[in-house]
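Something for you to look into today, if you have time. What I am after is a single protein written out in full by you. I want to see for myself how the chain folds. Could you add the entry underneath, on a fresh line?
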Amino acid sequence: QTYRQMKSTNPEIQLVIVGDGPKKDMISRACPDAIFAGVQTGEVLATHYASADIFLFPSLSETYGNVTLEALASGLACVAFDYAAASERIRNGINGLLAPCDKADIFVDQAVRLAGDAAQQLSLRLNAQQSVVPFDWKKIIAEVETTWIDLLGRHAVSQSTTKD
């Protein structure tokens, strides 16, 4: 639905789906002109990101959302639901657009408006890369380690208190 409405606004739009999943057949029937690239990694995946302008992330089940970080790092204007990692990484109107979780119509509207607004696309794309500069792997690993050490410390204190 989002793609069809975006295409009606801008007939030049091409839907490229990278990855795979249980809804592939249903989506391919609904969008017969879409390109299904399958699962990609490394430079091929980076090429797909680099060739795009807008990244649609309608997931309500992915919790970390590494693809959101990858899309932002690739300088893509992102549209996602205000949920999980997308809500932590995307700043509505700054580096992407967020729709409330229970409002698929708002998600569609935002994507359609974005498809027809080159100036907003450019603004979001310019801010996207900058917004993820702090998320390098060393920092992420340090944060995970700190969290685990904190949790282990709390557990040790909890165990010593219950033994008294």
